Amino acid sequence: MYEAAVFYAFGAVLLVSALAVITARNPVHGVLFLVLAFFTASAIWLLLRAEFLAIALVVVYVGAVMVLFLFVVMMLDINLERVREGFWRNLPLALVVGGVMVVEMVLVLAGKYFDIVATRPAPFPPGYSNTRALGRLLYTDYCYAFEIAAVVLLVAIIAAISLTLRRRKDSRYQDPAEQVRARREERVRLVSMPAERDA
Fold this sequence. Notes:
By secondary structure, the chain is an all-alpha fold.
């Protein structure tokens, strides 16, 4: 009973913060509400005994992605009126997608009470570790897929660095090899000028 009350409390905070993300007038406030939504989602995953996913959500999204979003939003001069131009145009499609998601959530939650879902997960044995089970599964059954995903991410990182690494033409830099090969005749030129005469 206590766990259900905590779940519904975190769920209410998550819904309110998610609504505040899309309704906030200030983009910085929207990003901060998104951080709150991620924290409450990680708390719900902790209640569901998915410790690794909760920690990964906090470390990856809140610790890296959201900080990057916050810096980008604060550094860019965003025209709020231009951002809100397409709100009413995209509202019907957003309502349809939101309705489909609400129906799916109702079916998932109603399955617990009306036996819509026939298969239910077995209770966890004592001493069960979600992180250990996930690591064992990743490095045994899905080892090759995990390594291929790592190689794909490495190739993507190298491609991003090579695409953005451009040498500026107006930047000045020194070439030590050219400086060592320098000779006096190439660097110094004696100009003979006539002596000045008194008027």
